[in-house]
Amino acid sequence: MANTTYPDDPTDILRDVLKLERVTSDPDSSTFTGHTPKQTRGQVFGGQVVAQSLAAASHSVHDDRNLHSMHCYFIRPGDASEPLTIGVDHHRDGRSFSVRHVEVTQHNKVILSLTCSFQTQDKGIEHQEPMPEGIPHPDELPPISSLVGMIDDPNAQELAYNRPFDIRYAYEPIFLRPGPERVNRNIVWMKTFTPVNVSRNMAAAGLAYGTDYTILEAIMRHHGITWVDPEKSVASLDHAMWFHRPFTLDQWLLFVQESPSAQSARGLGMGRIYTIDGDLVATVAQEGMMRLSKFG
Questions:
Q1: Contact 52, 70 (CB under 8 A)
Q2: Which residues are catalytic?
Q3: Segment 21-53, tens digit of pLDDT
Q4: Fewer beta carbons under 10 A from the terminal one: N or C of the chain?
Q5: Domain 12-121+142-295 falls in which CATH fold?
């Protein structure tokens, strides 16, 4: 049962996230304002703040410079009812690379700190890790709305109808119950529901938004933790991405996620993102806080 208060086209959420208001601009810095689309949660989704930071940084570089890496720390939770102030410092503009540092603030406190780098197109050596074989085609897998859309719960409804990406699980999802196997791997297909006509850098910002949804699920799957488990507390601590090759957000992307380690109430999620034709387009890493009440 779809909630009619949600947008007819959920991808409009991403379009709205990437629309920033420029406040100031000079040779050394730029300031923007970002907003949070209507949602059930009171906290801002971390992927949104990352995407808006990258969008702001992208507005400060020449069009011939493509985002190739980013590293950020989630410092405080964001308030979804208040605008975000996004400040961009122009650290360096060289012949080939531009480096930007971004701080996002609310109530005069920093909630996210991000550094990213852009590069002009260049030629050089190439190789890539091949895409895994034997993964079901996304057309053979159910959308999230068919899995949880019938549940009369605000969080389930938000999950089903208020996300800009169509996400389909190659393994059984862990929303309501643990997967049948305790493996440290999670695989999803993802794309926007409708076409998004944006630049290469804005596509990278949009992809960063989408990766924050599931990157920690390999950890949870390995330990039999579900999203509805009342004994858990999960939060993103940092996020890093490397962008290798061009892609479009409205074509299926395979997100292969693994967790090499969990310890001290923290877990590390790592992922590779491929086009449906097998091109490796991005690599992701995120460490998350993962507390369970049974450990005190």
A1: no
A2: 212, 236, 286
A3: 999 877 778 999 999 988 878 899 999 999 999
A4: C
A5: Porin (2.40.160)
